[in-house]
């Protein structure tokens, strides 16, 4: 697992060309969009320690995977490892992606004007995000 994280992850899960992503989402009707985000449950065997934390709302043991994808559904950022009981919003708030977005270092400072409002690069997500 360490070899995958250290050698492969940064080559496969990468932001890539932000303008290509923005143009791709714009072609689908979502202007100035840098990605789409959601969480999913990865089923696991119940751990011996703190097993109840890994039982999700559907009643099975899982680990959370949060993923940001580009306009073609390719991973551009992932966060994995939180127990299945944890809500998407908590995973997001504690992710590196959230910190980078707050600090303004994940996407370039590129705004468009919609009506009379300046809109920065946005991410599509459900209400948890």
TrEMBL record:
InterPro entries per record: HARBI1-like, HARBI1_dom
**GO CC terms, sorted:** nucleus
Q: What is the superkingdom listed in this entry's lineage?
A: Eukaryota
Q: What cofactors does the UniProt entry give for this protein?
A: a divalent metal cation
Question: Which residues are in the DDE Tnp4 domain?
Answer: 37-116
Its annotated compartments are: Nucleus
Describe the family membership recorded for this protein in Swiss-Prot or TrEMBL.
Belongs to the HARBI1 family.
Its protein name is: DDE Tnp4 domain-containing protein
Q: Which organism is it from?
A: Chelydra serpentina (Snapping turtle)
């Amino acid at each position: 697992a360490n070899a995958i994280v250290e050698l492969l992850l940064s080559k496969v899960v990468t932001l890539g060309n932000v303008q290509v992503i923005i143009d791709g989402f714009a072609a689908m009707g979502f202007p100035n969009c840098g990605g789409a985000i959601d969480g999913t449950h990865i089923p696991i065997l119940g751990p011996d320690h703190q097993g109840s934390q890994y039982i999700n709302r559907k009643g099975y043991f899982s680990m959370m995977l949060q993923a940001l994808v580009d306009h073609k559904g390719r991973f551009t950022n992932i966060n994995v490892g939180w127990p299945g009981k944890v809500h998407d919003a908590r995973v997001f708030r504690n992710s590196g992606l959230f910190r980078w977005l707050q600090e303004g270092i994940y996407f370039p400072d590129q705004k468009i004007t919609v009506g009379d409002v300046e809109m920065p690069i946005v991410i599509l997500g459900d209400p948890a995000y």
